[in-house]
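Protein modeling request. Please complete all fields; requests missing the sequence field cannot be processed.
Requester role: graduate student
Desired output: 3D structure, token encoding
Chains: 1
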Amino acid sequence: MSKAKKLSKKQQAVIEDLFASELDEQAVLSKHKVSRNLYNRWLADQRFAEQFNEHIARSYRQSQLIIARYAPLAAAKLVQLTESDSQETARKACLDIISMGSIGDRLAGTPLVPVEDSGSRGGLPDLSAEAASRLLTALADDG
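Delivered output (143 residues):
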């Protein structure tokens, strides 16, 4: 199949089912009566591979959007857990809060959608190692 040609209806249906259905890869191929050899040839085809990779990228963007949407709620729940009567629960919540900063740093460095201020962490305050240490010490003293 040449680079300029569009995907066949069968190829489009296979890609759609791979990402939209609950079927695994082999079940999708069986459903569309596509042999493993043909599927492997499709994967080697540049246009098919591009469409396949675009679907993968779209799935990851959707996942990141869901995570970003619920991050403030998760952060608020973690802050509540820092006041738990269980020292272990409070300690783990503190550690999770600290690690949220490093996750934000990694995501801020690799935005999927270009942004002007890539250093922004969505309004989350920076938490230095010293501040994190003081927070953990204060929680330990409260226990």
